[in-house]
Design a protein that fits this description.
CATH topology: Rossmann fold
Helix content: 25-40%
CATH superfamily: Flavodoxin domain
Radius of gyration: 16 Å
Structural class: alpha/beta
Order of helices and strands: EHEHEHEHEEHH
Shape: globular
Number of strands: 6
Number of domains: 1
CATH architecture: 3-Layer(aba) Sandwich
Largest sheet: 6 strands, parallel
Bound molecules: flavin mononucleotide
Length: 184
């Protein structure tokens, strides 16, 4: 039987991203039970409503990857109590209907199962998760109820190293299991 496909979206483009580190924890836990891939959206163009039809090839490819996935799992930092601009740019591209006449308003995010995780400062990413929840509800995605917000230890910002605690790992593993159950 084919394994469910989960597409990871990392909200940070930073080499050594702590959110990427959490995604690695999730991937390890799901190993052998789900097919994991990560969306590379670093070089997508800035959204331009005049360039939607036909969509640039990189946008069409990103949409195809989302469309083919059974779930999308976003791991993201919080920037100024909100989402990184690059992530919002991606969501704006993904939020547009594929039908140029707009008679069919379906997008690749309509009904898509989406999970949210954030490693951030003291807010545990409450700001970015709250705002992404609003957007994804607006887009009629199917959000996983369990979200994970992790307060990064202060020393991670000093050393540039983050080793998830046992509690952090457990939280991500629980979320992974729930996500898998929801699409299985
Ligand atoms: C522009 C900018 C704004 C930030 N704003 C917040 C914030 O509002 N809340 C917070 O918890 N952390 C904030 N941070 C700190 C990030 O949470 C932290 O740098 C985190 O490690 C970034 O995630 P990454 O390791 O996956 O790149 C901000 C960082 C940057 C660069």
């Amino acid at each position: 039987m084919p394994q469910p496909r989960i597409l990871f979206v990392i909200g940070s483009l930073r080499k050594g991203s702590f959110n990427q580190r959490l995604a690695d924890v999730a991937a390890k836990h799901l190993d052998g039970r789900a097919e994991i891939s990560t969306l590379d959206y670093r070089d997508l163009p800035q959204f331009d409503q005049g360039e939607e039809f036909p969509a640039p090839p990189s946008i069409a490819d990103a949409r195809e990857q989302v469309s083919q996935a059974d779930a999308v799992w976003i791991f993201t930092p919080e920037y100024n109590y909100s989402y990184p601009g690059t992530l919002k740019n991606l969501l704006d591209w993904l939020s547009r209907p594929l039908d140029p006449t707009f008679q069919d308003k379906t997008t690749v995010l309509t009904g898509k199962k989406v999970a949210l995780t954030s490693a951030a400062g003291k807010s545990a990413g409450a700001g970015v998760r709250g705002k992404l929840t609003e957007i994804l509800d607006f887009l009629k995605s199917d959000l996983l109820g369990r979200q994970v917000g992790i307060v990064l230890p202060g020393e991670a910002f000093v050393t540039g190293e983050y080793e998830p605690s046992a509690d952090d790992v457990k939280a991500v593993e629980l979320q992974a299991d729930e996500l898998l159950d929801s699409i299985g």
